[in-house]
Amino acid sequence: MVEGMRYLFIDFEFTMPERNWKGFYPEIIEVGYILVENGKIIEQFSSFVKPIKYPHLSKRCSTFLKISQQQVDEGITFQQMLEQLRKIQSKNALHIVTWGNMDMKVLRNNCLHTKLPFPFDGKEIDLSMEYKRFFGNQNQTGLWKAVQEYGKEGTGKHHKALDDALTTYQIFKLVEKDKRYLKKPKPATIGDVIDFSKVLKQHV
C-alpha cells in the first residue's frame, strides 16, 4: 500500500435475467465500498440502487442475492450513486480495487446506457488477477475461497456488497504482507559486518 495514496475497495451486485427478457444487460442494484488512507478506513458506504431497464427483480436474482423488491425500490437512483462516487474521486489520487473485472465493466456499461459520465479516473486494480499472479494459480479464485485459503473467513455475508468490499480489503492486506516477506533483503555492507569503532580502538 503506497503511503499517502487513497484506496477505494468497492463491490456491486447486479440484476439477473429471466429467460424471456429481451435486450437484457446487468444493472447495479447494490453498492458497497470502503475508502482507505494510510492503512485506515476513513469512509464506508452501502446502499441499494434502483435498476432502470428492468426495475422489477427476477425471482432468480432475489433468491440468489437475497435482495427483496422493496429494498431495491427504496434504494438510491443510479445517478445518485454516481454522484456519491464522484465525491471520492474529486479529492485526491485514487486506486480503485475490485475482486474481478466485472464490477468496473458493468459500471461502465451502465454509464453508457444512461449517457452519464464514468465517475473514476484513478488506477483500477483487479485484486483477483494480482492474487492469481502472486500464487501462480492457473485459474482465478473466488473471493471467499481466496480468503479461506489464507485460513481466514470473509466479513459478514458473501454477495452482500459492503461485506464483499471489506473482504477484498482483508485479502489485499494479507497479500501485501506476503509481498513484504518475499522482498529480498538489502545486501550487507562492510560497515554492517565490522564494527569499525572496535577496530580503531585496537590500533590506538
UniProtKB/TrEMBL annotation:
One Pfam match: RNase_T
Superkingdom assignment: Bacteria
InterPro entries named in the record: 3-5_Exoribonuclease, ERI-1_3'hExo-like, Ribonucl_H, RNaseH-like_sf, RNaseH_sf
Domain called Exonuclease: residue spans: 6-181
GO terms for MF: exonuclease activity
UniProt keyword annotations, A-Z: Exonuclease, Hydrolase, Nuclease
CDD domains associated with the record: ERI-1_3'hExo_like (cd06133)
NCBIfam families: PRK07748.1 (NF005838)
The name this protein goes by in its record: 3'-5' exonuclease KapD
Species whose genome carries this gene: Cytobacillus stercorigallinarum
